[in-house]
Protein: adenosylhomocysteine nucleosidase
Amino acid sequence: YGTIGIIGAMAEEIELLHQHVQVSSETAGAGITYYEGTLHGKPVIFCKSGVGKVNAAVCTQLLIHLGADCVLFTGVAGALDPTLNIGDIVVSSTCMQHDMDVTPLGYKRGVIPYQERSEFAADPKLVELAVQAGDKHFAGRTLVGKVLSGDQFIASREIVHDLYESMNGACAEMEGAAVAQVCDMNNTPFVVIRSMSDKADGSAHINFAEFTIQAANHSYTMIEEMVKNM
Ligand code: ADE
Structure:
């Protein structure tokens, strides 16, 4: 896999990477700091993207430009699949933007006009490595499913139902499809790994802060196990 690019959505995750990666150099770009070093002897480059698709896209492009040969993205998401519980993990089969809407011109929801692809498939080997890591370390479920991204924090049962029924999303978050599209444009393999922090139904504020620390620990454990096996 060459140099492994790792993007965390949260400061807590980056903090754990800092504790474990032997950092050899730092580069700044577009207000983001990229740290290069080794984790379990493997070359890695990691950074914090910030929230939303624009931050994620810029961050991914720079990460690839600085030498990442693949991209692992971790963070939290709201569950859409009603069988998912808080703490479960979704590994991306594909990623799509749920807020890309050119339906007035006859395009299906999520379809990017004049673009060859709008649903971006994760690398099957990275998906397998993520599932193995999840199954090895967590009692909860590790589901492979479609990750839907949009610049909205979903907090309504109706929207959850709609995104699940009409777009078949396993979870909703705010960066994955942007990372996926940039990776696709650069022929770079990727996978998105998300811990469920809430059920996207408006009760997120109750679990969100508390769950962040646990989720960051989960994500780091997954990344570490994957990197060992890459
Ligand atoms: N990340 C975590 N929970 C989320 C939600 N409900 N909607 C969008 N992004 C999220």
